[in-house]
Design brief:
The complex is a heterodimer of chains A (about 325) and B (about 325).
Chain A (H helix, E strand, L loop, with lengths): L4 E2 H15 L3 E5 L15 H5 L4 E3 L4 H14 L2 E8 L7 H14 L9 E6 L24 E3 L4 H13 L4 E6 L6 E2 L13 E4 L4 E5 L3 H14 L4 E5 L2 E3 L3 H11 L1 E9 L4 H13 L5 E7 L8 H7 L3 H11 L4
Parallel strand pairs in A: 2-3, 2-4, 4-5, 5-7, 6-7, 10-11, 10-13, 13-14
Antiparallel strand pairs in A: 1-8, 6-12, 9-11
Helix pairs in contact in A: 1-5, 3-4, 6-10, 7-8
Chain B lengths: L15 H26 L15 H7 L7 E5 L3 H7 L3 H8 L23 E5 L4 H13 L6 E6 L6 H12 L4 E7 L2 E2 L2 E2 L9 H6 L5 E5 L3 H18 L3 E6 L17 H9 L2 H11 L4 H24 L16
The chains are: A alpha/beta (about 325), B alpha/beta (about 325).
């Protein structure tokens, strides 16, 4: 459809507009400049802004993130790309020990405005170590923000919000969203930390994010045909967590299902259900989740498809759970 | 000991006014560290400490070659890094004691001091972290002709973190001075036992980064080497590496009596104490004994006043600490 925005183009446009707006914004990573990124999210930026502001780095995730931290403290607003989320195991020190703690430890001497973009998520037959969604590895780190859009409009407005944010932001881009098209954003910039009610309903609150939102909406349509009205919330941000939006919804529906592409133990769904239970138990009749198995992500198409919960699993879990009406 | 011998006073044209200042600053670091040791034993310094006594010439020599707007990153053995870069004694002492007057309000402690006002972007508790911070700082400072320096120990030279940063700095032409404080032991382990090839500077030279071995106990030599490296960074946007051979007088940390070192080795290094060497150089340059002694006296008075100020400062009040998770 003409006039529609592709997710990967939304990412590129957001970076281009922010680099145009603020010369302190720089962008670097592995194969992001000349090649335009392995997911083709950033072509043209190098040509437009030059090699001083957009450059390819060695395959050195720790140096990359150290450079982002140091340059942010000194006065730049770096955006880096860690190619696959799985590689986030490598730059942990600079992000968790340095960037996330600096504002507090320094007694607010300076903020650390940096963005780490990375491609996450399963379903692409990339196997166990190119398919994870490692936002939860960072979920328990005060000082970090974690954003994760579900559509092109949010991708653009949230990434712009991330670049303008004064704090370190992990920006997760689901691989199965890069080719998705949708309308342009209605707001130029979305602040990090606000969830969105993307479908209204009265019987059940379904909380999810990234690629899960499309599945949740499809499942909600099917359930509506059975007379169950589902309210779907797109978290958009894992940290800070917008519990207010979720609690408001649950006060209406009295039921919550969290749908997560990732394991239950230590996952964000457990945190969401915990937050809702702690603050809104009086509103709750039921709370449960649909997660992946407590296993690494398999490679073979039959195994990976079975591993990833989707629309059918959501619908059947709602039916099995019962109690609605 | 692998440092070269030299006759006192053999060096020509030492800037004695600068050296008197450097001697005073080194005494400040030494007396600060001795004070921290004393206060730790009294329970006033908490957790652990990593004292840098014996290694003063490296940060003092290097930082004397910097501009105030150049940035430095230190380590968990970082009291000397902070003082050499300009952090004031009383706020640093307060930080060690966990007091409200601390340079980070008592939130950071001995291993994690940050003082941006004086260009210290942080002291980092993880080996190699200073190098990561420095390449980033250099990326920002580069366009304005600024320089970033990182300090780290011999232990970091076996860490991938440092090697990623060395390569990154070279291929991106970053104005970084990498300063290795080779104090011969990574914690309790002799560096030679765990360092393949046995030549730290030689390894780094393979990155086409100029790498020099320096007598890290001779502040004049450290300063000269640092000036050359800083000039290269500032004018040519190129990294350099200094392997400064030095020795810590205390153990690795508060729980380490240093039993793995022989008395003879410790005694031999204490004869080459950077404070003794600097005083000898001043004498050889004709500076009066009274002036040399006055540098120590000034340092002593400054440190004692700072410790007293810190000891008198209140602890931070949790209720009014005012922490926020995020910057707005």
């Amino acid at each position: 459809m003409s006039g529609e925005l592709e997710f990967r183009v939304a990412v590129r446009d957001a970076l281009a507009e922010e680099m145009e707006r603020d010369e302190r914004v720089v962008f670097f990573g592995e194969d992001v400049a000349v090649a335009g990124g392995v997911f083709k999210a950033t072509p043209g930026l190098y040509e437009r802004f030059g090699g001083e502001r957009v450059f390819d780095t060695p395959i050195s995730e720790l140096a990359l993130s150290g450079a982002a931290f140091g340059s942010a403290v000194a006065g730049l607003r770096p955006v880096i790309e860690i190619m696959f989320g799985d590689f986030m195991a490598l730059p942990m020190d600079a992000l968790v020990n340095q960037a996330a703690k600096f504002w507090y430890l320094s007694k607010e001497q300076a903020s650390v405005p940096l963005v780490v973009r990375c491609a996450v998520g399963a379903g692409g037959r990339f196997g166990a170590i190119h398919s994870q969604t490692p936002g939860t590895w960072f979920h328990g780190v005060p000082g970090l923000k974690i954003a994760a859009p579900s559509n092109p409009a949010d991708a653009k407005a949230l990434l712009k919000g991330a670049v303008r944010d004064e704090n370190p932001v992990l920006f997760l881009e689901h691989k199965r969203l890069y080719s998705v098209k949708g309308p342009a954003p209605s707001e130029e910039v979305l602040p990090i930390g606000r969830a969105a009610v993307v479908r209204e309903g009265t019987d059940l609150t379904m909380v999810t994010m990234m690629r899960g939102v499309a599945d949740a909406l499809e499942a909600a349509d099917r359930l509506a045909a059975e007379g169950i009205e589902v309210e779907v919330i797109d978290l958009r941000t894992l940290r800070p967590l917008d519990t207010e939006t979720i609690l408001t919804s649950v006060s209406k529906t009295n039921r919550i299902l969290a749908f997560e592409e990732g394991p239950w133990l230590g996952g964000w769904a457990a945190g969401v259900l915990g937050s809702v239970t702690a603050a809104g138990l009086h509103d709750l009749d039921d709370a449960w989740s649909v997660n992946t198995a407590e296993l690494p992500i398999p490679y073979s198409p039959t195994l990976e498809d079975a591993f990833l919960p989707g629309i059918d699993q959501i619908v059947s879990s709602v039916r099995e759970r019962g109690g609605i009406r | 000991m692998k440092t070269k011998e030299r006759a006192p006073g053999a060096r020509a044209a030492v800037d004695t006014a600068w050296l008197v200042d450097a001697l005073q600053r080194m005494w400040e670091v030494r007396l600060f560290e001795e004070g921290m040791h004393r206060l730790f034993l009294k329970g006033e310094v908490h957790g652990t400490t990593h004292l840098s006594a014996g290694q003063e010439a490296v940060p003092v020599g290097v930082c004397s070659a910097l501009r105030p707007d150049d940035l430095a990153a230190g380590t968990y053995r970082g009291h000397g890094h902070a003082l050499a870069k300009g952090t004031e004694l009383a706020p640093l002492a307060g930080e060690m004691l966990g007091r409200a007057n601390g340079v980070c309000g008592g939130r950071a402690g001995s291993m994690n001091v940050i003082d941006l006002e004086h260009g210290l972007i942080g002291c980092f508790g993880i080996i190699g972290g200073s190098a990561g911070a420095a390449i980033g700082a250099a990326l920002e400072r580069k366009t304005a002709g600024g320089v970033a320096v990182c300090f780290f120990g011999d232990g970091a030279t076996n860490h991938g973190y440092l090697h990623e940063c060395l390569n990154f700095a070279k291929v991106h032409s970053l104005p970084v001075v990498f300063v290795c404080e080779n104090n011969l032991y990574g914690e309790f382990t002799p560096w030679e036992a765990v360092t393949a090839g046995g030549d730290i500077a030689g390894r780094v030279a393979s990155y086409a980064i100029p790498a020099r071995k320096v007598d890290g106990n001779d502040v004049v030599e450290v300063r000269a080497a640092a000036e050359e490296s800083v000039k290269r960074a500032r004018e040519s946007h190129e990294p350099s590496f200094l392997e400064c051979l030095t020795y810590r007088h205390y153990g690795h940390s508060k729980s380490d009596p240093g039993a793995y070192r022989t008395k003879q080795e410790v005694a031999a290094w204490k004869e080459r104490d950077p404070l003794i060497l600097a005083a000898e150089t001043l004498r050889g340059s004709g500076v009066a004994e009274a002036e040399i002694e006055a540098a120590r006296t000034r340092a002593d008075e400054a440190v004692e006043a700072a410790l007293a100020e810190a000891l008198a400062a209140p602890f931070p009040e949790p209720a009014t600490d005012g922490a926020t998770e995020y910057a707005l």
